[in-house]
Amino acid sequence: MKKTIDDGRQTIDNRQRMVNRDNQWSIANGQSSASFVKAIGAIVWKDLRAEFRSWELISAMLVFSLLVILIFNFALELDVKTRQSVTAGVLWATFAFAGTLGLNRSMAIEKDRGCLDGLLLAPVDRSVIYFGKFFSNLAFMLIVEAIVLPVYSVLYNTNLFQPGLLLVILLGSVGYTSIGTLLATMSVQTRTRDILLPILLFPVVFAVLLAAVKASGGLLDNSTFADVSFSINLLITYDVIFIAASFMLFDAIVEE
Amino acid sequence: MISVKKLVKRFGLKTVLRGMDFEVKPGEFVALLGPNGAGKTTFLRILASLSRPSLGEVTIAGFKLPNEAAQVRARLGVVSHLPLLYGDLTAEENLRFYARMYGITKDQLRITEVLEMVGLEFRRRDLVRTYSRGMQQRLAIGRAVLHDPEIMLFDEPYTGLDQDACAMLDDVLKTVAAQGRTVVMTSHDLARAEELATRFDILSRGVIAASATRRQVKKSNLLEFYKQALAG
Q: What integer pLDDT is reported at residue A2 of this predicted model?
């Protein structure tokens, strides 16, 4: 039931819950942490649902990734030992370039039909939109990586299914996607979005890629976990810094 | 319901709104008219909290922008010439997504109610990209009223629609207004504005150049009033 309270503000049901005239449906208070998580979940659900219907984004990333590893495979014609030493570099170059495609497409979908405005109009904290898109982009990247890894293992005759390496790939992907989502949101609002994102992203994400390549290379060379712990700690630190910075900057980036 | 005082909006060196004052009472349907580049869309984007004012005071339903933007957004429904809908989701899925973003519980009931209101119940499971432009715009209105907002903002809602789609949109807009909502609509279509609005404000060179109620305008006509306001 609608009420007008003392300070003259139009409000509904004590500003906690909005309820329609027949009490059939209601609007929960949008400030609680439960609604924060639900709204993030809604964005991820929407992105995955749309993607699994169109396969636009994942298929583009996947085709590109497979082409890159095939080209490297035939171009380098390396012996088994050398192949092992270039694996980390080839893998992360593949993930980084394919990731750029995915980030661009993911934000372009929001921009093209004005959907980004639709998200910004929701009565939720703007960081919800950032985290929703971040988790969606991360899911797309991990799906592509999950397909690329076995193909790479077969082509290069290298076992990539080591728990330590999988952890490094996860941490590297988190760092890449966290800052990539922020910069894609920024670049998608420009006319030169396709070329602007890599120009913005690669200098910033270079540190993450370097740490990821070092850690992956070490693990593939059968180094102990302790030997690569510095690179892994560096990756964790970058992940935390990038997520925190993106969380703080997102609102300023999306508002005109 | 809406109070705007000395609103200024600059984009770099360009000043779009120059100390604009604007008031809307609850239940009013205001048509905001003006030539291209007058600042209508910029103004509506500020009201919708999509753009931050450079200077001035904006209060909506008692909440100040930009500090209380989330509370304002909970009370606003916005329709622009873009549908703000996802083509690879069905109508039902689009509305379910927005229902979750607005924290609507028992969303199925509300989605059915809204789809019936905009006459798209029979296409609820079809992908939005298969809809005509007119159907997408009707669904966009459904999306905007999903959370039963007190205030509706329409930014050129007739853009790109054919005559039949415009007539259907007229009916939906009348239904929305008849439910007691406060409406601000920008339009180039004077005839449609004259039919729907209870007040006409002319925005020119970043300020409201003239304002008149439907009764005042009837004595001459809207086109004459519009021309005089721009000339003055």
A: 40
pLDDT of residue B219: 59
Q: Which residues pair with B154 in a beta bridge?
A: B79, B185
CB distance B85–A115 less than 8 Å?
yes
Partner A contacted by B138 (CB < 8 A)? no
B31 phi and psi angles, rounded to 5 deg? -95, 120
Q: Predicted ipTM?
A: 0.92
CB atoms B148 and A20 under 8 Å? yes
Task: Please state which of the ranges A21-35, A115-129, B129-143, B207-221 shows the lowest mean pLDDT.
Answer: A21-35
B127-138: string of b/e by CB count within 10 Å (b at 16+)? bbeebeebbbbb
pLDDT digits (tens, 9 = 90+) for A131-186: 999 999 999 999 999 999 999 998 888 888 899 999 999 999 999 999 999 999 99
Residue A124 is given by DSSP the state S
| pLDDT tens-digit map of A244-254 | 999 999 999 98
The C-alpha of B189 sits at a distance from chain A's nearest C-alpha, in angstroms, of 22
Contact map slice: A 105-144 vs B, CB within 8 A: 109, 113-115, 117-125
Question: Cα(B153)–Cα(B41) distance, rounded to whole angstroms?
Answer: 10
CB of B141 within 8 Å of a chain A CB? The answer is no
Residues of A whose CB is below 8 A from B95: none
- For chain A, how far is it from start to end, CA to CA, in angstroms? 35
Enter the CATH code of domain B2-231. Answer: 3.40.50.300
Q: Do A41 and B100 touch (CB under 8 A)?
A: yes
Q: Where are the domains of chain B?
A: 2-231
